[in-house]
Write a structure and sequence with these properties.
single chain; alpha+beta; Multidrug efflux transporter AcrB transmembrane fold; 5-stranded mixed beta barrel; 10 helices
């Protein structure tokens, strides 16, 4: 076990060094951008509303009360006195400063929701819940410091995506499920699944002919930042959609195999493999439906908009680029899961029967 903990610590050290390097370069780039662009957001509180004039107290060092307008980029018009808002401060060409209410200020609400989530997780799942919270924080932190910083500094987004998924897999699975053969087999199987997932991502994007800008946000990104490698961002976007499902499937199958072996230690490799395959087949349908519903829910307002405004039949609907993109996400995730099931079953069966020296 000591070697396991040492290895785990080494991976954490590597992760921190990678994060430090990305953050250091990104901080330098952010300073350059800040010197070139004086526009910024700040927190404010609406203290008075007179017709279309909104008076907001800026909650910064000066706590000034200024008159603002509603930003043209947002359609909120139901603000009330006392609402916390995000104020966009821009420097005009004539040297004057303009203040626009951009949106509600979400951070305080997000923090409250996160605290409620933590309370529920720890109350219901106890230790597992606590480690699940830590894993969520790790995943979000690494996503920001590795992938998003990679985009900002111009590093390969695909390389950053590979580093990201490897780190969160190696660091979070043992954290939640323990340092045992179950976690080891899940990590090995998931990493093999990542290779398959990347191959399927390139294959499906070519077969479906998605292109480099299959939705409005990709086109806006390319117009505003033409130097960004939009194809790499598309590939990583499609691949990341399947990562969570791959981890979930691998851990579930490994858990079932290891629990089954506890009850029936006389099981052969063939029977252990069949046990894993049986569990994998049982969760296959529900996991694919989970992917489908998650993507449909995320894009539902836009799909409704396009349906009401443009499409006359299901053929036109399915042929639309944004719909094709979301369906590609589902196909990539589903195909990756299908191929991962036998890989995980073989890996878990082999490890447990080989009596690898890992604490159970």
């Amino acid at each position: 076990m000591k070697k396991i903990y040492i290895t785990y610590g080494i991976f954490w050290l590597i992760a921190m060094l990678i994060v430090f390097q990305f953050s250091r370069i990104s901080a330098t780039q952010s300073q350059i951008n800040e010197n070139l662009n004086q526009n910024q957001f700040t927190k404010g509180k609406i203290v008075q509303i007179n017709d279309e004039n909104f008076y907001v107290q800026l909650l910064d060092e000066e706590n000034r009360i200024i008159r603002t307008e509603l930003s043209d980029f947002y359609i909120h018009d139901d603000y009330k006195t006392g609402d916390m808002v995000s104020v966009y401060i821009s420097e005009l060409e004539d040297g004057k400063t303009q203040y626009d209410i951009a949106d509600y200020y979400h951070f305080d609400g997000l923090l409250l929701a996160f605290v409620l989530f933590c309370i529920l997780a720890i109350f219901i799942a106890r230790k597992k819940g606590f480690y699940s919270i830590i894993s969520v924080v790790i995943s979000l932190f690494f996503f920001y410091t590795i992938i998003l910083n990679a985009v900002q500094i111009g590093t390969s987004v695909i390389l950053a995506g590979i580093i990201y998924v490897l780190l969160i897999t190696i660091l979070t699975i043992p954290l939640i499920h323990g340092f045992n053969k179950k976690s080891a087999s899940a990590i090995i199987a998931v990493n093999i699944g990542y290779v398959i997932g990347f191959i399927l991502t390139y294959l499906f994007t070519a077969v479906i002919q998605i292109g480099h800008t299959p939705s409005e946000e990709f086109r806006i990104l390319l117009i505003q930042f033409p130097d960004v490698n939009i194809h790499q961002i598309l590939i990583v976007s499609l691949f990341l959609g399947a990562v969570g499902a791959l981890i979930d499937v691998a851990v579930t199958i490994c858990s079932a195999i290891f629990e089954g072996m506890k009850e029936h230690p006389e099981l052969t490799f063939s029977k252990t493999y069949k046990l894993g395959m049986g569990v994998g087949k049982d969760i296959l349908g529900s996991m694919i439906n989970t992917l489908l519903l998650a993507y449909l829910a995320a894009s539902f307002p836009f799909l409704v908009l396009m349906t009401l405004a443009k499409f006359n039949n299901i053929h036109e609907f399915l042929n639309y680029d944004f719909v094709a993109l979301e369906l590609a996400r589902i196909f990539i995730g589903a195909a990756s899961i299908i191929l991962l099931i036998p890989i995980t079953s073989i890996t878990a069966a082999y490890l447990i029967l080989k009596k690898v020296n890992i604490h159970k």
